[in-house]
Task: inverse folding
């Protein structure tokens, strides 16, 4: 069973702080890694993809991948109340199928 | 605008009444997929399609059918819906399986289905 594990939260951070979201996966052959943001009742929105070890930055978002530890994380700098959402980690092996974690709920308090 | 569309967005139906949820993408993507999302269970894949006339089962295919006659469309069919199929359904698409950004999946707005 290919598993993607996330802490369900809620993770509460004050406005302006760094939010750190973590994800572990069980399939050592995984090759593609994604973070989606999902507001309540809305569809998942892709915010970051990462394919190789290390950091990838895009604006306030940084994705970090460590394949040896089977760990991927998302950092959100200068968190805003509008960042309050559920963040889904998705992991793929090859081809197309993605396995999704159940998500971490983030609450950014003013 | 590049997008995945689904119709209807909301549907209330009765047990046993056949229904179809449509999905269409205008990005010339090869891959399309259907997911359902339930509280506590996360996103689970129902069926997927690698290309026209090529479909395969995901993790929870029971009670569902799909077809892929055109590249842009991937309808989800519930021939005899039951209350346990009450869920939020998402269609998604991605470019291809040749590596790099082509695995990125883009989601439609969702269809909230209630079966009574």
Result:
């Amino acid at each position: 069973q290919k598993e993607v594990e996330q802490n369900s939260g809620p993770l509460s951070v004050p406005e302006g702080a760094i939010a750190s979201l973590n994800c572990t996966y069980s399939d050592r052959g995984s090759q593609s890694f994604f973070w989606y943001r999902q507001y309540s009742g809305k569809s998942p929105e892709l915010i970051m993809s990462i394919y190789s070890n290390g950091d990838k930055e895009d604006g306030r978002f940084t994705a970090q991948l460590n394949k040896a530890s089977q760990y991927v994380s998302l950092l959100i700098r200068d968190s805003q109340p509008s960042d309050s959402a559920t963040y889904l980690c998705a992991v793929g092996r090859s081809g197309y199928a993605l396995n999704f974690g159940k998500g971490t709920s983030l609450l950014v308090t003013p | 605008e590049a997008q995945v569309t689904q119709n209807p967005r909301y549907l209330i139906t009765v047990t046993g009444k056949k229904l179809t949820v449509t999905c269409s993408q205008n990005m010339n993507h090869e891959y399309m997929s259907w997911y359902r999302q339930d509280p506590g269970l996360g996103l689970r894949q129902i069926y997927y399609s690698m290309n026209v006339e090529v479909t395969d089962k995901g993790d929870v295919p029971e009670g569902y059918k799909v077809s892929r006659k055109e590249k842009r469309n991937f309808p989800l069919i519930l021939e005899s819906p039951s209350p346990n199929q009450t869920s939020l359904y998402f269609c998604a698409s991605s470019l291809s399986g040749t590596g790099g950004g082509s695995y990125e999946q883009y989601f439609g707005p969702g269809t909230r289905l209630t079966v009574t």
